[in-house]
Amino acid sequence: MANTTTVSTPQKSRPQMLPPDTRPVERFTSQSDYLTGDLSLGRQAVLKDLRRYLQVPYTTLIRSAFGAPADISLIRQKLTQDHILKTEGAKSQWVGFAAPPTRSNVSENVTFRPLTDVISSIFDQIPNCDVSFTANPFTTPLSERGNTSRPDAYIVHGRPAPNPTHWFDLVVPFEFKKTKDRSAKRDNEQKIIWCLHQIMREDPLRRFAMGITIEDTDMRFWYSSRAFLAVSKPINFTTEIDDVISLFYSIGSGSREALGWDPTIERIRIGNEVQYKFEIGNRFYTTTRPLATYGADAMVGRGTRVYEALDEEGNLVAIKDSWRDDDREPEGMILERILKDIQDKLGEEEMAEAEKYFVKILAYEDIFVSGKVDKTFKPEEEGDICFEWIAIDDDPFLSTTRHLPSTGHIPSSEHPPPELARCEVRPPSTVIPRRVHARTVFKEVGIPLAKLTGLVDGLNCQHDSARALYYVHKAGYVHRDFSVNNVLWFEGDGRGIGKLTDFEYAKKVGAKESHDIRTGTMHFMAGEVEAQHYIFMPEPDPATVDGDLDSPPFRMNFLHDLESHWWGSMWFLLYHTDANSPTECPKEQLKCFNQAFPRVIAHTSRRDFFTLWRELSAARATLSMTYQEKCLAIFKLSITLRQCYNIAEENFPDLVLDDCLQDKAHKSVRDTYVEVVEELGGSQIQLKPVRECQEMKRNVDDSPSHRAEKKARRA
Length: 715
Hints:
- With 715 residues, the protein is of the alpha+beta class.
- Among the domains are: 55-263, tt1808, chain A (Alpha-Beta Complex); 446-538 and 552-715, Transferase(Phosphotransferase), domain 1 (Orthogonal Bundle).
- The strands form 9 sheets. Strands 2, 5, 6, 7, 8, 9, 10, 11 and 20 form a 9-stranded mixed beta sheet that branches. Strands 12-13-14-15-16-22-17 form a 7-stranded antiparallel beta sheet, with helices on one face. Strands 23-25-26 form a 3-stranded antiparallel beta sheet.
- A hairpin with a 5-residue loop joins strand 15 (305-310) and strand 16.
- The chain starts with a strand and ends with a helix.
- Residues 1-25 and 397-413 have low confidence and may be disordered.
């Protein structure tokens, strides 16, 4: 008898959803405006991604970042002796700031120049201090990513300061304003946030970044981690002398680790290229090229960077460095459990077969810094829970000064198409998140389906990834994050093999953890996952329905993974065309692509694309004639999947997800790819993005010869 899983109506829980009027979109740092390299557009993208920052009492944030303050009485005394600080009775004042900056009639860089004496004098009194303060608003730090923005001042690592200065060297950037009005505050905020963003995306060694803004006498301390962006409430830097001294003493006496650097990564130069040496499990891996580092462009998130690397024996591997939620298990541990459950349920032989379709993990570990697991902190651990989330005002029009434009700061070779951005939709929350720094070593370096250019290779890759999902589901898990970047193709002596990866969000069916949020790459989410409720149950009988229907809390199941898999194939087919015999209607194909992948969640055009055959048929008709008919079965898979949904939800609110249904769905998927590949035979069709056809047509239409030809025809 087939094993049957019946999900009855449990006690309702708080839904993991945003308000109904909220339409989440992909990260702005993955969209075209950010990718242009324009500083103004990039800054707006970063602000829109962040949406908010955490405001924390000054003392709380400083203690969280640096620990308990040191005794500064001797430093204060020396500052007075050196005429940096003036003390009269109980009142103290910096000699260089006898009047507040707002009363200054000279430029900002001149107004705040006395800070050089204040901060440098504090650093001079710290034994073995290895940082320097530089106020030089006309010098742009060097950047590997072509960024030409420049802070008003900065503390750099090195004494004396390195010349020239690189963004790698910056410890704390500063932004100044003589006034404290709304415009000044906003301009400083936008610029310091960009500085912190630049530090975190530029340098794989940086675990967190710090900054300081001053508006008139108001000084605020900024702290950016992969969990949140925090800012202190302002203090008066001209009167709250001890707080100022204590802050710069903490910075000046801090080790590289305490200032945000990762001691388990070393930056090295091989020829003319910068590479990195990662330590994992007491072994070292030297990078050869980045595979995907765009995850670090978002200030808050996993900050994932993936590199091709060589181990100590010269073997090629892949290294992933990321920050997972602290209540999630490591990806390697999850995969181990999946394989063990496959072995327990299906036997040793099937487990060995399943391993072929998973990217093998050689090692994984949480990173230790200064003897402790490297985690982001929570300010409330300091005993003060007086914090609040502040919405970011991203209006660009109140900025009173400009940085130079930034050009070419995004390496296009490793950035995916914008529509492949990962999207995680969380409910509004006042909880301060925490993330754990982790690293994983993969045995093999494959090619993502998104970058494959062989049609048959891509379809074989999808066949094999479906096989991987079969074993995931047989083990009692759902993957929850299928995308064309999470399935890799490995070329071999035969036809090659596709393998599934990225198990960080995989979850045991029936597990009660609180992570049933909409997660994954936006355009591969199943429709029910987008909606966060079941949509294929039968309509109730109007004669018998009485009030509202009971509805169980939404949970992902194997059908959602298979639908995500199908969306992956739709992306592969509609994004590309035959390089040698392209579609005759690229404009129409792009229109269908945008209908299927509208770049916002829960768009009706996407639902129609999955549920209405007329939409699918119209999309298929736009494909290149060399494979249009032969791929019909892949489009028809949507019908099979909808039938499976109907069966599963037939007795709603009870959901019946049994082995028979699971086997039927998987067999249909596997057979479809076998059929299509056989139809294509030994075809060597190579693909290119269909956008290239549209761009080529546009260039031809705009050429002088073509315009002259059209003019002659009209005449």
